[in-house]
């Protein structure tokens, strides 16, 4: 019986090689899609956290990279709620020393803004700008950014979704 194929059962093939049965269905890679994805709601506390370090982990949560069925072209990430965004930390003189650039599209339309000015306009703007730079630069990245919710205080309006609170430092 060594070296020949066994019977075909359904949509997969059973190979018998040296008296070992191998199920070829187990070799199939399962790709996530909109129907099979399990999206959860997660709360992250930004109190005392460094902006860049928390945003890299939030971007991974939004992308779904911590899940075993991660698929690059599918929105398989979680909905992330960031609370206490006003208590985030930037080391050194980055509040006024770091400069973000944008362009209006008109001649001479280059504008610059610091993180302190972005925070004054709204704490969600700073987080969105930083996380957006860590997501794919395509339609999927825009869709993933819509799953991010940022609040200055410890209260948020998503209690109906029953979000689970996670420690962002426990993620790698």
TrEMBL record:
General function of this protein: This protein is one of the early assembly proteins of the 50S ribosomal subunit, although it is not seen to bind rRNA by itself. It is important during the early stages of 50S assembly.
BP terms from Gene Ontology: negative regulation of translation; translation
Superkingdom of origin: Bacteria
Provenance organism: Tannerella forsythia
Keyword check for NAD: no
Family to which this protein belongs: Belongs to the universal ribosomal protein uL13 family.
Keyword flag Ligase: no
Keywords associated with the record: Ribonucleoprotein, Ribosomal protein
A Pfam family reported for this protein in Swiss-Prot or TrEMBL: Ribosomal_L13
Subunit description: Part of the 50S ribosomal subunit.
An example molecular function term from Gene Ontology annotations: mRNA binding
This protein's encoding gene: rplM
Protein name stated in the entry: Large ribosomal subunit protein uL13
GO cellular component, one term: cytosolic large ribosomal subunit
């Amino acid at each position: 019986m060594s070296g020949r194929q066994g019977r075909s059962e359904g949509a997969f093939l059973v190979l018998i090689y040296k008296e070992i049965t191998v199920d070829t269905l187990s070799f199939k890679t399962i790709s996530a899609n909109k129907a099979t994805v399990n999206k959860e709601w997660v709360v992250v506390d930004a109190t005392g956290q460094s902006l860049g370090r928390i945003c890299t982990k939030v971007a991974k949560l939004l992308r779904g990279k911590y899940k075993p069925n991660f698929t690059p072209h599918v929105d398989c990430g979680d909905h992330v709620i960031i609370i206490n965004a006003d208590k985030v930390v930037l080391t050194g003189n980055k509040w006024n020393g770091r400069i973000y650039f944008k362009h209006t599209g008109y001649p001479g339309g280059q504008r610059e803004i610091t993180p302190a000015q972005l925070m004054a306009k709204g704490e969600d703007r700073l987080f969105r700008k930083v996380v957006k730079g860590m997501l794919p630069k395509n339609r999927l990245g825009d869709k993933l950014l819509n799953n991010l919710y940022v609040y200055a205080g410890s209260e948020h309006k998503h209690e109906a979704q029953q979000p689970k609170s996670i420690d962002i430092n426990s993620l790698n």
